[in-house]
Design a protein that fits this description.
InterPro entries: Zincin_1, Zincin_1_sf. With 113 residues, this protein is an alpha+beta fold. It has helices at residues 6-18, 22-27, 72-77, 82-100, 105-110, and strands at residues 31-36, 46-49, 66-71. Helix 1 (6-18) packs across helix 4 (82-100).
């Protein structure tokens, strides 16, 4: 297990989001990305909660933002170096953003995410 302080981890998440292709960033809508410093639910490195863009209809509105949560302690627990933490943060952010775009876990695994 690698220990990364909260501020440094949050910077990694920001960097991962900033590393997304600009055209994807422009399409993201009504979603908040947060870091949970606790371990999170068993076995999860990240979690998407909300209504994917592909399921939103014309009646979508007046709802709280979707939420992507990245679990710091869980990612640190599966990493053996700072470099692995950075890579796992990036993979987890991309995976959860994929859910925001309506991509299933099975398809994300096929794509290597």
């Amino acid at each position: 297990m690698v220990e990364v302080d909260g501020e440094q981890f949050e910077a990694m998440v920001t960097e991962a989001l900033d590393g997304l292709p600009p055209e994807l960033g422009k399409l993201m809508s009504n979603v908040a990305v947060t870091v949970e410093h606790g371990p999170g639910p068993r076995g999860l490195l990240g979690l998407y909660q909300g209504i994917p863009l592909t399921r939103r209809t014309t009646s979508y509105g007046g709802v709280l933002p979707d939420r992507i949560t990245i679990y710091r302690r869980a990612i640190c627990a599966v990493s053996r170096s700072d470099e692995e933490v950075v890579e796992q943060v990036r993979r987890t952010v991309v995976h959860e953003v994929g859910h925001h775009f309506g991509i299933s876990d099975a398809r994300l695994r096929e794509l290597g995410w």
